[in-house]
Structures are given as C-alpha cells and as structure tokens.
Amino acid sequence: MAGILFIISAPSGSGKSTLVAQVRSLVSGLDFSISYTTRPPRGSETDGREYHFTQRDTFEQMVENGEFLEWASVFGNYYGTAFSALEHARAAGKDLLLDIDVQGAVQIMKRMPEAVSIFILPPSPEVLEMRLRNRSEAEHMTSEDVIERRLQQARSELEQIWDYKYALVNDVLDQATAEMRAIVLYERGVRDGVTATAEGCRTDARSLRLMTAMKSFDVG
Ligand code: ADP
Ligand code: 5GP
Predict the structure, then answer these.
(1) From the CB of 205, is ligand 1 less than 6 Å away?
(2) pLDDT tens-digit profile of 88-109?
(3) Of 9, 21, 36, 64, which has the fewest Cβ atoms less than 10 A away?
(4) What is the rounded CA–CA span in Å between residue 60 and residue 70?
C-alpha cells in the first residue's frame, strides 16, 4: 500500500499549502517532500520545514551531480525535488506528496507514469486575486507586479490541467479537503465512502464545478 507518489500542482495562491496541511492532519502515512529552492524565505517560512533554502551555485552543483528527480525554474528561481526525499519516504513505508509546478509534474509523469497527479485550482480569477492579495498583505509585501504575473501564470498553468488524473476546485476549504482525502484513500485501495467523491474529481469526469471554474478563467 505504501509508496504511492502524489504529485500536487496548483497556481500560486490557490490554497495548495493550506489544503495539503489539512489533509496531512487527517490522513496518516503521508510524507511531504521538502523541495530545494533558491528563492528567499517568505513570512514565517523556516529552512528545512517548507523548503531547503539554497544558494544558486549550490543548487547548480546539485543539478550537475544528478541529485534531482526533477527541477524547474519558476518565477526566476530554481526549485527541485531531490531523489533523497523519495528514498526517505520509501524507507519509512510512507506515501509521498510532491508540491511541484506543472513543468516538474510533466517530467515526473513521463518518468513515473504510476504517480497520481492532482491539480488544485481556485474557483475563479477574482477569488485567486483576492487570496494573493490577502496573503501578500499578511506578509507585508504587496507588489502589483507580482500579483499580475501570478494571475497570468495561473492561466497558462491551467492549460495543463487535462494531463492530470484529478482536479480539485478549492472553493470551500472543508469540501476540497474532503475531496483530497477521498482521492488519497481511494488510490490506497479504500472504496467505502470515498469512491463517488474520488471518481467525481477525475479530470475526465469533467464535473460541472471543474468546468465552471475553467470557464471563469477563459480556459477550455
Ligand atoms: P498556495 O500554497 O497555493 O500558494 P496558500 O495555501 O498560501 O496558497 O493560500 C493562499 C491564501 O488563500 C492564504 O491566505 C490562505 O489562507 C487562503 N486560502 C486557502 N484556501 C482557502 C479557501 N478554501 N478559502 C479561503 N481562503 C483560502
Ligand atoms: P512558492 O514560491 O509559491 O512556494 O512556489 C512557487 C511554485 O514552485 C509553485 O508552483 C510550487 O508548486 C513550485 N515548486 C515548489 N517546489 C518545487 C519543486 O521541487 N519542483 C518544481 N518543479 N516546482 C516546485
């Protein structure tokens, strides 16, 4: 049962970190891969907890040494998943959650087709903008330029959604949490009480909720 790789992608500000934290508090045996990044810590982020914050030259050396399962450049910074995260989770008999962008996700889907991919999207661009603003205000660093760039980026990431097995609309947090929990349990082989919810989140089910959110972003 252990050893499933869950790939989670979402436009920045969709609520992915919030959702993942909720699901991890409800479902045991789910390890979270701590990525390496060259971006500086945000707010209360701590080295070794949200990310391994790394200098650019160290990151480039790790790429050269072949230490990454995947890596990508996002918003001008490097982000990467080390093979060691996979090895730790396997050794501990746990499933592993990877929070990675669409470029990294596509690399892993090719290398490991058995990985379970989940895309999280906000219900509309207006809600996404509000969440981005709330978060940056809380961190005392609102930049119109950054918000605008992230909204543009969200649209282009949403075009990749059909490559993912599942999609979740993070509107009401409790509902999205219940859906993600159902997907994790379903993929572990549980059927009782989770089948309809998990199958309803498959991208090929094209639920009304998913299609409504996609339409609001003007992406078909
Ligand atoms: P991400 O990890 O996708 O960049 P965060 O988890 O940091 O996003 O969430 C962005 C902001 O939106 C945060 O301020 C968070 O509290 C808020 N948020 C997340 N999910 C929801 C939700 N379902 N409803 C309302 N606000 C949410
Ligand atoms: P943030 O800076 O907001 O934490 O993350 C920005 C983007 O980088 C998000 O889309 C996040 O999923 C992605 N990301 C975080 N870690 C990794 C990683 O290890 N690899 C890749 N490819 N993307 C990552």
Answers:
(1) no
(2) 999 999 999 999 999 999 999 9
(3) 64
(4) 13
pLDDT of residue 2: 60
| C-alpha to C-alpha distance for 11 and 76, rounded to whole angstroms | 16
Segment 104-162, tens digit of pLDDT: 999 999 999 999 999 999 999 999 999 999 888 776 667 888 889 889 999 999 999 99
Parent domain of 126: 5-33+95-216
Helix-, strand-, coil-residue percentages of the chain, each rounded to 5 = 45, 20, 35
User: Rounded distance, CA 149 to CA 160, Å?
Assistant: 18
CATH classification at residue 160: 3.40.50.300
Ligand 2: lining residues by beta carbon, under 6 Å: 9, 12, 35, 39, 70, 72, 74, 79-81, 99-101, 103-104
